[in-house]
Amino acid sequence: MTRPPAGAPAWEPAEVPSQPPLHGLVTADVAVVGAGLAGLACAYHLAERAPGLDIAVVDAQRPAAGASGRGTGLLGPRAGPAIDRAVRRFGPETARRMHLASVRAVDQVLDLYGRLDARCGLRTGPQIVATRSPLHLTALGRQAKAYRELGLDVPVLSGAAIRARIGVPYTAGLLHRTAATLDPAALTCALARACAAKGVRFYGNSPLRALRPRDLAGSELVFPHGTLYAGQAVLAVNSGAREAGLPVGTVLPLEVYAVATAPLSAAAYAALGGRAGYAVVDAAPMAPYFRLLPDRGLVAGGGTVTAPAGLDAPRLQVLRERAWNWLGRWLRSLHPELSDVPVVHRWSGRVGMTLDDLPVVGPVQGCPGVWYIGGCCGHGLALSVAHGAYVAGALLGEPEPGVPLPWHRSRAPRIPGGGPGRHLLRGYVDILGRATRRTC
Ligand SMILES: Cc1cc2nc3c(=O)[nH]c(=O)nc-3n(C[C@H](O)[C@H](O)[C@H](O)COP(=O)(O)OP(=O)(O)OC[C@H]3O[C@@H](n4cnc5c(N)ncnc54)[C@H](O)[C@@H]3O)c2cc1C
């Protein structure tokens, strides 16, 4: 079998507004740096709620160049650590609010989708978190108990109940009802077009080099060929935080992997749930997962994570090939009908990871009027959109009612960069990855 080209996601690139580089001296009421889902959702809500506000979106490359254009499109709830650990760490009330906020985030994306001209293959349908391993069955049991005790509607599915939906021999699972699947790149590009239609200006190929508070008000944002003076700024650069020198703790770029198959046979497609549109996520820590595409292909991701800092291109490519090959073997193990299905797309992307699994959404310390959004730890399709809307509200002086969520904060815990810290981290993710691949 010939190997498919490596690099491009399964999605066709979608149209985006034109993106001249930022040249000379430019001003804006609000600068949004980072044209992923978080930055664009923020710009969209600002433009919608405050027509006439002068908004400039600037990206190091173009809209959807980051994780938002390379995701696998599982739109589901859950934020931060597993629910039982969240209860232990934050107490039951906060853990419950965290979960409900993540469910609301899914609804926010569905609502946004309804307002956009977005052909992004949306299919609403539940997400199942399931296991085939005794080890993870125990962990899943603890989570089921926590959901029940918190009064959250996340029912347990027996192995038989899962097999009635999808023909994969999982032992048990949890059913998240509020979920969907979609093409995230198409959603991101549709959001960019909707922003442009509302008068938002776009600049591309302009990486933020420096950020300085100005004496009187606002900030000076420095790009390779120009400077942007803005009254307020949102730095939605996700895993680009360290490279841009932002004081937001450690939001570490980690490389994750995905593959997509050719259209499945009718029997295989039906066996995996067909038009019901299930997404299935393994309960293991680096969770391999899959979902079906509208063209009857199957997308799978997860299973391996790489800390790319300090690795040269050939080494990274070796690790990618290994991760894609494992994903191919994993997906073929799901059902006999998949045993020889060809993989036709293989790609990777960088997510923003924090030490405590929680995102960072808050004002940047020492820079009045500047906010950061990022670090959704690999499941930010829903949360990034919600964070963008939340920050838009904050900039417009609309306070969120109630106690802030644990990830409404200015910085993540710091992981020492360079030397020993980097080696320890790489060792840790390698061990976790090996354990995941052994048990799945
Ligand atoms: C392979 C893969 C699969 C995934 N699958 C899923 C999934 O199924 N479900 C899910 O919920 N999540 C998934 N994710 C995660 C999800 O895509 C992200 O959490 C989400 O898109 C993050 O959005 P964002 O806007 O915060 O960041 P990004 O989309 O990363 O956007 C950040 C933007 O900032 C720009 N930028 C960075 N540095 C600078 C700078 N210095 N100056 C200017 N611009 C800069 C980048 O070019 C980029 O466009 C996946 C991610 C990957 C890579």
Key words describing this protein structure:
single chain; eight-stranded mixed β-sheet; alpha+beta; 440 residues; 10 helices; 19 strands; binds flavin-adenine dinucleotide
Could you characterize what this model shows?
With 440 residues, this protein is an alpha+beta fold. Helices cover 33% and strands 23% of the residues. It contains 10 helices and 19 strands. The protein has helices at residues 37-49, 83-90, 92-115, 134-149, 159-165, 184-197, 266-271, 313-332, 380-395, 419-439, and strands at 24-33, 55-58, 74-75, 123-124, 127-131, 156-158, 172-176, 180-181, 201-203, 210-213, 219-223, 226-235, 252-261, 279-282, 289-292, 298-306, 343-353, 360-363, 370-374. Strands 1, 2, 9, 10, 11, 12, 18 and 19 form an 8-stranded mixed β-sheet that branches. An 8-stranded mixed β-sheet has the order 6-7-5-14-15-16-13-17. The chain has a 3-stranded antiparallel β-sheet with strand order 3-8-4, with no helix packed on it. Strand 1 (24-33), helix 1 (37-49) and strand 2 (55-58) form a beta-alpha-beta unit. Helix 1 runs parallel beside helix 6 and helix 2 packs across helix 3. The longest helix has 24 residues, at 92-115. The chain is globular. The structure holds flavin-adenine dinucleotide. The site of flavin-adenine dinucleotide (FAD) has 43 residues, from helix 1, strand 13, strand 17, strand 19 and helix 9. Flavin-adenine dinucleotide binds next to helix 1, strand 13, strand 17, strand 19 and helix 9.
